[in-house]
Amino acid sequence: MSADDIVALYERRARDWVADRARQTVLFEKGWLDRFLAPVRPGGTVLDLGCGPGRPIAGYLLSRGLDVCGVDSSPTMIALARTNFPDREWIVADMRTLSLGRRFAGILAWDSFFHLSHDAQRRMFAVFRDHAGAGAPLMFTSGPRHGEAIGELHGEPLYHASLAPDEYRALLVQYGFEPVAEKMEDPDCGGHSVWLARRREDG
Question: What is the residue-averaged pLDDT of the chain?
Fold first, then answer.
């Protein structure tokens, strides 16, 4: 199992993932999402990388008065997102090679970025930079330390990787972001390790 298998896995298991998430009645990400949204003006567009079917996270952003441009490598996930929110922009694309030629009011990579290999994660910071408007928040989830881990999705192996916290901090600064907050294995967010940064106004 490697990061290269993730795209096909989520395409095979898209509807299983949706069913699993629908059983979760609490939006445990809400606290972090609210912090992420605090500097974003109403009507601003958030780039949601690994958006899945648009629920629950994109739906929450929309409920807060934001617009969303969702990107996912799974055609099935994007088809579901288009059904859920037909008047929004949903794109089938690999975040690793994304080049939309425009900048956004915020960038979110929740439970998606950490499926990339170490080197792909390092390269993603240029993608973040190229799509973030001045002052735009960036939020992503990672592991708590450098390494790789294999989880499972309906009995199939599911790849995760993480860089060391010091390397994430250095990459954020190198690519024009100011670290705002971080918390490893946050007990109030389902044990997620979360990073929040903001694109420098002069970046």
Answer: 92
- Distance CA(31)–CA(201), nearest Å, equals 25
187-202 tens-digit pLDDT: 999 999 999 999 998 7
Q: State phi, psi for 162 to the nearest 5 degrees.
A: -150, 145
Q: What is the pLDDT of residue 97?
A: 96
**Would you give the distance in Å from CA 112 to the centre of its chain?**
5
Question: Could you tell me the two tokens for 175?
Answer: 């690519």
Provide the residue ranges of all domains of the chain, joining segments of one domain with +. Answer: 3-199
pLDDT tens digits, one per residue of 97-106: 999 999 999 9
Instruction: For residue 139, give the nearest of 166, 170, 163, 114 by alpha carbon.
Output: 114
Q: Which amino acid is at 126?
A: A
* Dist. CA 154–CA 17, nearest whole Å: 9
- For residue 138, the Cα-to-chain-centroid distance in whole angstroms is 9
Architecture of the domain delimited by 3-199: 3-Layer(aba) Sandwich (3.40)
